[in-house]
From TrEMBL:
<keyword id="KW-0496">Mitochondrion</keyword>
<keyword id="KW-0689">Ribosomal protein</keyword>
<comment type="similarity">
    <text>Belongs to the universal ribosomal protein uS2 family.</text>
</comment>
<protein>
    <recommendedName>
        <fullName>Small ribosomal subunit protein uS2m</fullName>
    </recommendedName>
</protein>
<dbReference type="InterPro" id="IPR023591">
    <property type="entry name" value="Ribosomal_uS2_flav_dom_sf"/>
</dbReference>
<dbReference type="InterPro" id="IPR005706">
    <property type="entry name" value="Ribosomal_uS2_bac/mit/plastid"/>
</dbReference>
<comment type="function">
    <text>Required for mitoribosome formation and stability, and mitochondrial translation.</text>
</comment>
<dbReference type="InterPro" id="IPR001865">
    <property type="entry name" value="Ribosomal_uS2"/>
</dbReference>
<dbReference type="GO" id="GO:0005763">
    <property type="term" value="C:mitochondrial small ribosomal subunit"/>
</dbReference>
<dbReference type="Pfam" id="PF00318">
    <property type="entry name" value="Ribosomal_S2"/>
</dbReference>
<dbReference type="GO" id="GO:0005743">
    <property type="term" value="C:mitochondrial inner membrane"/>
</dbReference>
<keyword id="KW-0687">Ribonucleoprotein</keyword>
<dbReference type="InterPro" id="IPR018130">
    <property type="entry name" value="Ribosomal_uS2_CS"/>
</dbReference>
Length: 273
């Protein structure tokens, strides 16, 4: 017996046959298809967007894995073998200032005093320099900005040239206090501060500490610095005890930090970061 559909019209005595039921079913099916087409367009866009978002997450995870793997190697950039104890000795890194100018906090890094002049223990300087170079390369590998800082007028052109050659920045002029802590008011906009400061000299003169050392410390920006026997190493994140006045020693520091930065950038490029 054929199925019959009873509607409001059947109440008036009219009954629908199978053909009428088929027409109604086709109408309903068409409405459903149109509705699904309207809904599916944004839904598909959401699905595509979700796939793109998932792809971004996977890419970020790959980047994180590469960055974390770089920390497992103690010398990922092979910077510790760029310099030897003999290189430091030939560059006169072991010469300090007059013993009367000695900062008490630098005493652990000294070998002793000869003819009234402090002498650095290069066996302690070498690992500190290796740590500083390694940290510098890691910061650059992660896309960080490096700022070279120095007030040695004799070496200013060389510091600026080194920063230019490795694609970073240098500040060798007078440092106004609050350049970092009050950056938004001074520059009138949000300014990205450097991720690392490299101090070739941590003093403005024989007795006055460079103001940028305090600014970096207040903003919790890590620093690498050459600290002579008359310097305070406490505010420097990675102090390198050694001579910061002799040109041949400063040229050695600049060459090493430049090479460390270039190695970090090259490795970043190779890993597609």
């Amino acid at each position: 017996m054929a199925s019959r559909l009873v509607t409001s019209s059947s109440r008036r005595g009219k009954k629908l046959n199978i053909k009428d039921f088929s027409k109604i079913q086709r109408c309903i099916t068409g409405d459903v298809k149109q509705l699904s087409a309207k809904v599916s367009a944004p839904t598909q866009a959401m699905i595509k967007g979700d796939h793109a978002f998932q792809a971004m997450i996977k890419d970020d995870e790959k980047v994180d894995d590469k960055l974390n793997n770089s920390l497992k190697d103690q010398d990922f950039f092979k910077v510790r073998n760029m310099v030897t104890l003999r290189d430091l000795f030939n560059a006169r890194v072991h010469f300090g200032h007059d013993a009367g100018c000695r900062n008490p906090y630098i005493t652990p890094y000294l070998f002793g005093s000869r003819l009234g002049m402090d002498i650095f223990d290069l066996e302690k300087t070498l690992p500190h320099l290796g740590d500083a170079l390694n940290f510098t390369a890691h910061v650059v590998y992660r896309g960080g900005i490096v700022l070279f800082v120095s007030r040695n007028r004799q070496m200013m052109p060389h510091v600026e040239k080194t920063a230019y050659e490795c694609g970073e920045y240098a500040h060798c002029r007078y440092w106004y206090g609050g350049s970092f802590t009050n950056a938004e008011q001074q520059y009138g906009m949000m300014t990205r501060l450097p991720d690392l400061g490299i101090f070739i000299n941590t003093l403005n003169n024989v007795f006055e500490e460079h103001r940028a050392v305090t600014d970096f410390a207040k903003m919790l920006i890590p620093t690498v610095g050459v600290v002579d026997s008359n310097c305070d190493p406490r505010l420097i994140t990675y102090p390198v005890p050694g001579n910061d006045d002799t040109p041949v020693a400063v040229h050695l520091y600049l060459r090493l930090f430049k090479e460390a930065i270039l190695r970090g950038k090259q490795k970043r490029k190779e890993d597609g970061l």
